[in-house]
Amino acid sequence: MATAGNFDTRAATPFLTSRGHSGWLGLTYAQHGDDWVELELPWREDLLGEEGRKVLASGPILSLMDMASGLAIWKAMDAFQPIATLDLRVDYVRPARERASVFGRSQCYRVTRSAAFVRGLAHDGDPGDPVAHIQGVFMKIAVDGRSTGHG
User: Fold this and answer.
1) Among 17, 56, 104, 126, which is disulfide-ready with 64 (CB 3.0 to 4.6 Å)?
2) Segments of 44-124 assigned E as strands
3) How far apart are CA 31 and CA 5, in angstroms?
4) What is the biggest distance separating any 2 CA atoms in the chain, rounded to whole angstroms?
5) How many CB atoms lie within 10 A of CB 138?
6) Which of these, 88, 105, 98, lies nearest to 49 by C-alpha position?
7) Which letter does DSSP use for residue 48 in this model?
8) Going along 6-48, which residue ranges are E strands?
9) Which of 38, 27, 17 is nearest to 120 (CA)?
10) CB count, 10 Å around CB of 32?
């Protein structure tokens, strides 16, 4: 179901990130602009990547970036409608700092009839020294208004 006009990122994020995998990760709203959203992935002991190091694993960072990208797309379209991740490339350039939260900022830089394109970065406090860069494509899913009843 598409909801057009005035997608309120600040209000929608707590609802969308409090459920499922995002809820379990504890993703929270940080900030947003017209075509970008930044979320925070808080550091937690159970999200560590390597024994003996207090650094967040790469999987939760990928999930952070996927959710930030979806929110950036909805913000850029100014509408909530179904989308699906087609391709999300993550280039990790360094491990996050020990015991540091990671912030994921994604920008939706192009929306077409059937797809949306994002780019962004993950950082642990300094966007000038990123943990990872991302690039992705999401499919917009058309909502068919016809009845699906069988009778």
Assistant:
1) 104
2) 79-80, 83-92, 102-111, 115-123
3) 20
4) 61
5) 22
6) 98
7) B
8) 28-32, 36-41
9) 38
10) 19
CB-count exposure of residue 135 (10 Å: 0-12, 13-18, 19+): middle
DSSP letter string, 107-131: EEEEE-SSEEEEEEEEESS-TTS-S
Residues 140/109/18/124 CA torsion (nearest 10 deg): 150
Q: Which residue has the tokens 């850029």?
A: 76
Q: Find out whether 103 and 114 touch, Cβ atoms under 8 Å.
A: no
- In this structure, what token pair is assigned to residue 70? 């979806």
Structure token pair of residue 36: 């970008």
Q: Would residue 6 be called left, alpha or beta, if left means φ above 0 and alpha means ψ between -120 and 50 degrees?
A: left
Residue 21 clears pLDDT 90, i.e. is over it = no
Beta-bridged to residue 43, according to DSSP, are none
Where do we find the tokens 């929608």? 12
Task: Give the whole-angstrom CA distance, residue 144 versus residue 151.
Answer: 18
What 3-state DSSP class applies to 51? Answer: coil
From residue 151, alpha-carbon distances to 17, 29, 130, 147 in Å are 38, 44, 55, 10
Q: Are 61 and 131 in contact (CB under 8 A)?
A: yes
